[in-house]
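YM 10:42: Apple domain-containing protein sequence, as discussed on the call
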Amino acid sequence: MFSKTFVLLCIFFSYSCYCDGDYCERFRESFDSLLYNRVLIGQVIKSLFTRGGILSCAHRCLSLPSCSSYNYQMSESDYGVCELNGGKEGEQENLVEKPGYVFARRRKVTQLCNEARQLISKPASGYFYIQDNNCDKFKVYCDFTSEPGWAWTLVMSESLQNVGRPFTQRGLFKNEPMSPDVPNWEAYRLQFDRMKGLRSESTHWRITCSLNLASVVDYRDYVRAKFKDFDLLTHKNGGNKTCELVDYIDVHGHNCKNCTAVWYQSAEYILAHKSYQNLCDFARAPGSIQVNGTHSEQNFGRYAFYNPNFRCTSNNSATTNYWFGSQI
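YM 10:58: structure's back
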């Protein structure tokens, strides 16, 4: 009988990511841990009698795009029964006991939360592994449920308590990572290169307030824009005000759609909106304040001057969340 450790190592190393120069496979493919004496029923799309052991069965599954897992009958010889299964990840409710068989589910590491959403049968937000343009795998938080029909990747998040630290102040076009391998709500910012990679495959960005405490977006204290209209990763105005087009913006319940709003960003001044200023299509938001009588409150970032009635700055635990994404 094959050694379990040997089988697992062979499968893992036989199907790793291949990169050559600027080329990188879109998916890094391998299989989850083998489940012994288990088979998936009701999903078989092809049954084969293979030579070459379990690796041959694994190879057949990888060669068939519609194959999501396989059942293999272990034997002492090179020959075995290989059943290729269809269906999406997460559909394991029909796993049953069958002595002498093993079950393995195909795993794909995608480049986007949008792609990851296509691979699961039931949408559930959470942590996923995706890969960058160098085929390096990294962990992200994917949101599939706060806005129906959208998939979002968290690229940065900060709590008000952490405002003032460099990652909360430097422009988004600068590389200022914070805990990039450990996505969290209080102190997190991806490397700039990985942000660029996600942006190239995304259509929109958004900023939310304390979404970690809410299950859905109610569009209060919220902004969303298309990258083609307003790219927050390239926007540089030296800290001077410019009017930029957004799909939707709301501050203190005052909102507009497909309108311009005032924004600031420079190398040492992260993207921010000033809602007290009566500029652009999105005029002064009722309820906005001037701090010390001269400085407008800042919204969606920086927060040198802030209003506790704005959700992102309501208390020290309040968070500001930056996302890249697309409609599904």
